[in-house]
Amino acid sequence: MKKNETYRNLIDQIIRVEKKYRDPDFSASMLAERMGLPSYALSRILKSTYGATYTNIVHALRIQDAARHLKDKRFAPYSVDDIGVMVGFSNRQSFFSAFKKATGTTPEKFRLS
Questions:
Q1: What is the 3-state secondary structure (H, E, C) of 51-100?
Q2: Which of 22, 58, 76, 85 is most deeply packed, by most CB within 10 A?
Q3: 3-state DSSP call for residue 28?
Q4: Can you give the pLDDT of all 113 residues of the chain as single tens digits?
Q5: Are the C-beta atoms of residues 46 and 57 closer than 8 Å to each other?
Q6: How far is CA 104 from the centre of its chain?
Q7: Residue 92: which of 105, 108, 107, 81 has the closest Cα?
Q8: What phi and psi, each to the nearest 5 degrees, are found at residue 46?
Q9: What is the Cβ-side half-sphere exposure of residue 98, based on CA atoms within 13 angstroms?
């Protein structure tokens, strides 16, 4: 197995499988430390493997998760703000801004569409 593939598997395990993207306090430096890498090395690996920054990757996963929740009837009792917190956004502004940038619409309009 190539080194980048090994790193990708480890990153996927931590961020996706363990759902660390939902933890607003879990940072790129924490991921680097967990992987036993300096932050600059993790940054390079993310750029070469995913073509994105840590923040971009985490936001994309959060938006995908939020979109699923917004369309899932089981989450109908939860407010849009509640869903933003569930998927890892620490405040309404960052959730709405990231969601609109990614989807072209607000979470409320997405839920109603």
A1: CCCHHHHHHHHHHHHHHHHHHCHHHCCCCHHHHHHHCCCCCHHHHHHHHH
A2: 58
A3: helix
A4: 577 788 999 999 999 999 999 999 999 999 999 999 999 999 999 999 999 999 999 999 999 999 999 999 999 999 999 999 999 999 999 999 999 999 999 999 999 99
A5: yes
A6: 18
A7: 81
A8: -60, -45
A9: 23
Structure tokens at 103: 């989807």
Tokens representing 14? 């931590």
Hey, what are 89's tokens? 């956004």
Helix (H) and strand (E) counts for the chain? 7, 0
What are the residues whose beta carbons fall under 8 Å from the beta carbon of 12, sequence distance 6 or more?
none
Q: Rounded CA gap, 31 and 36, in Å?
A: 9
